[in-house]
Amino acid sequence: MDIDHARLVTRRELLAHGFDDGEIRGRKRRGELITLRRGAYAAAGALPERPEDRHAAQVRVAVRQVSPDAVVSHLSAAVLYGFPVWGDPLRRVQMTRSRRSGARVTDDLHVHAAPLDPWELVTVDGITVTSVARTLVDVGRHVGFEQAVVVADAAMWRQVVTREELDVALAAAHGRPGVPAARRALAFARWGSESVGESRSRVAMLHAGIPAPILQWEVRTAGGLLLGRTDFGWPQYRTFGEFDGREKYGRLVPPGRTAGDIVYAEKRREDAMRDEGLGAVRWGWTDLDPFTPTATRLRRTFRAA
Questions:
Q1: Do residues 112 and 224 both lie within one domain?
Q2: What sign results for the dihedral spanned by CA atoms 7, 10, 13, 14?
Q3: Which of 87, 158, 270, 293 is spaced 20 to 30 A from 31 at the CA atom?
Q4: Distance (Å, whole) CA 274 – CA 268
Q5: How confident is the model at residue 5 (pLDDT cuts 50, 70, 90)?
C-alpha cells in the first residue's frame, strides 16, 4: 500500500496491508502520517489547509467508522454543503442517530440522539446528511446567533432552501432544546449576504441599532443607468456601505484580471456613486469587533446626506 499518495487511510487498512503499530507510530513521528481523527490518517502534504476542508475529510473518515445509521448533521452537514463556518473550531464531527436517547460525546465526535424523518435526509457526495433546512435548524439550536446567521445567510444566498422549508423544519423540531434561538437566527437570515464578513456586519448593525440596510443595493442615475451594486444601502439616507474582505481582492478575482484591476474598478464605481450625492462608508474585518466606531461613521454619514 502506497500511503505516500493515499489521502485518507485508517489504522485497520494499514494493518491489513502489512504495517504494524510501531511503523505507524514511526511514520507519525516523522510527519509522514497526519492524524485526522483517532485511527485515521492523511499522508503528509495531503491534509487540506482550510479548516472546513480538513473537517470534511474528518467527516468522511467518521462515516466509515461510526454506526451506519448515524447521519451527518449540524455544522458537519453544513461543511459538506460547502457553507462557511465561522467562530467554531470544528473539533468534533457531528452526527445524529434517530433515537430518543443514547447521545455520546468524545474528543472528536458528537453523536446526537433525535428523531429523523426520511424527508429530512439527503445524500451529498455519497454521504447521508440532514437536509439543508434540518441542518440550519440544528445549527441554530446549538451555536450562537451570529454563527447561525453566517451559515443560514450562505444557504439563502445560494438559494438552496426556502422560507417554507425552514418553517416546516422548525415546526418538526418543536419542543427540542434551542428551537427559539434557531427561530430567531433563521428569521434574521436573508438573501443578499455573499460572505461571512457581510453576515457578521448585519449582526453588528443589529446590535448597534443601525437601521436594516437593503442588501445588494443597485445604485442608478436619475435616468436609470446602473452605476453599480453595493453590499449595503440606505436609500432613505443617501448612503451605501461596503465590507472589504480578502475575497473581493483575492480568490474571487476573475481570470485574466488582477487584484489591482479590481481595486481600480471599485474606486471608479464608488466615485460614480458619490457623484450622485451618495455618502459611502467602508469597513473590514478589524472593524467588526468592536463595531461602535463604524456605527458612528454610518450615523454621521446618514446625517450629512
A1: no
A2: positive
A3: 87
A4: 10
A5: very low
